[in-house]
Amino acid sequence: MRLLVLLWGCLVLPGYEALDGPEEISGFEGDTVSLKFTYKEELRDYRKYWCRNVGLFFSRCAGTIYSGEEGQETTEGRVSIRDSRQELSFTVTLRNLTLKDAGKYWCGVKGVNKHLLITLVIFPGSSRPIMHLDSTSAEDASPALSNGSSKPRLSIPLVRILAPVLVLLSLLGAAGLITFSSHLLRWRKEAQLATETQRNEVYLSHLNHRTSELGPEEAFEISSPTFLSV
């Protein structure tokens, strides 16, 4: 009975307890990703492979790449594979990922029924999160990510967002300055008009007071204009 259970497990779950690795991996366009698989001692001398699953109803491989000698990396196009037999593991590296690379892949051991199905998910490069380096992270960053400066960087998308805001603030400032200048000019005109009105009232009050002190004939001469005859 136990023998039947083990035989059923080997048929239904090929590679069970003999080959182990990730079932899914993801990356962005242009990235390089590596997958590490481990295997049992009995699979040390067998060649390992990586291929793409192109079967619709029946699984079959396309673009198969096989491992070489101990520690030797085999490369075909943007894919490479290296078997480290002393560590009982092999590594598959995918370089310069594209959206077309997304799909199902097989990795396994040639000559025995040991293989795994892996799903590769690719995200567009435009959806990559923006990393901001501050004074703390810049010290811990590798030389490839840091140029030795602890000053924070301003990302280009942030500049694009702030540009319309700065333009809008400039327009609002200009409109406010124009409105203030218009109110200031109006206030000066009203002040001048009030001053002239006050002067006229003072003059008329003085004239009325002087007229009341004089007789009718003198008052008429003061209030009436004098015409010179030639």
How would you explain this protein's 3D organization?
It is found in: Membrane. GO terms for molecular function: transmembrane signaling receptor activity. With 230 residues, the protein is an alpha+beta fold. It folds into two domains: 15-125, Immunoglobulin-like, CATH 2.60.40.10; 157-218. The protein has helices spanning 2-12, 135-140, 156-213, 216-223, and strands at residues 19-20, 24-28, 33-39, 48-53, 61-66, 73-76, 79-84, 89-94, 103-109, 114-123. Strand 4 (48-53) and strand 5 (61-66) form a beta hairpin. Helix 3 (156-213) packs antiparallel against helix 4 (216-223). It is rod-shaped, with a radius of gyration of 46 Å.
Compact summary:
This protein has helices at 2-12, 135-140, 156-213, 216-223; strands at residues 19-20, 24-28, 33-39, 48-53, 61-66, 73-76, 79-84, 89-94, 103-109, 114-123.
